[in-house]
Amino acid sequence: MFRSISSRFSARNKSAVAAATVLLGASGAVMAVTAPASAAAPTSAQAVAKKMVPAGQYQCFSKIVEHESGWDHTATNASSGAYGLVQALPASKMASAGSDWKTNPATQIEWGLDYMNDRYGSPCGAWEFWQNNHWY
User: Fold this and answer.
1) How confident is the model at residue 110 (pLDDT cuts 50, 70, 90)?
2) Would you say 123 and 116 are in contact if contact means Cβ atoms under 8 Å apart?
3) Pick from 37, 34, 13, 39: which is nearest to 24 by CA?
4) One Pfam family of this protein, by short name (predicted)?
């Protein structure tokens, strides 16, 4: 029953359903279907970013994150040690936005947005630089 109902939802709604399912499971209810964390995380991080990043800058921010980490908040560059959605280097710089920087996409988004605004004027300024240099 749950599977047939959830199949009618959009991808964004499926993420919300998955989150609700996890919450129900934590409260002791019997779960019929759960989505893997990897499926829900990118949508969740994108939803958080849409709330935090100014609307006119979101596409630029999203393009950078897509290229840098594929919206994986645990992405790690094996050779440089860059980490997270925005591939901070050193990764520990993100601690200035919160002690949960390793695990919380919102903290990484906050830090990344501040970095892009400080260094490039905006996420679109950062994206323009990225297009010319393939890094930012």
Assistant:
1) very high
2) yes
3) 34
4) SLT
53 vs 99: CA distance, rounded Å: 21
97: which 2 tokens? Answer: 């936005």
State how far the alpha carbon of 67 is from the alpha carbons of 22, 50, 60, 116, 127, in Å. 29, 17, 11, 15, 10
Task: Please give the average per-residue pLDDT across 105-124, as a whole number.
Answer: 98
Dist. CA 47–CA 78, nearest whole Å: 27
Task: Specify the DSSP class assigned to residue 94.
Answer: G
* Backbone phi, psi, residue 67, to 5°: -70, -40
Distance, in Å, from the CA atom of 37 to the CA atom of 45, rounded to the nearest integer, reads: 12
Distance CA 75, CA 6 (A): 29
Give the H or E element holding residue 131.
helix 123-133
Backbone φ, ψ for residue 83 (5° rounding): -140, 150
Give residue 43's pLDDT.
61
* Segment 87-110 mean pLDDT: 98
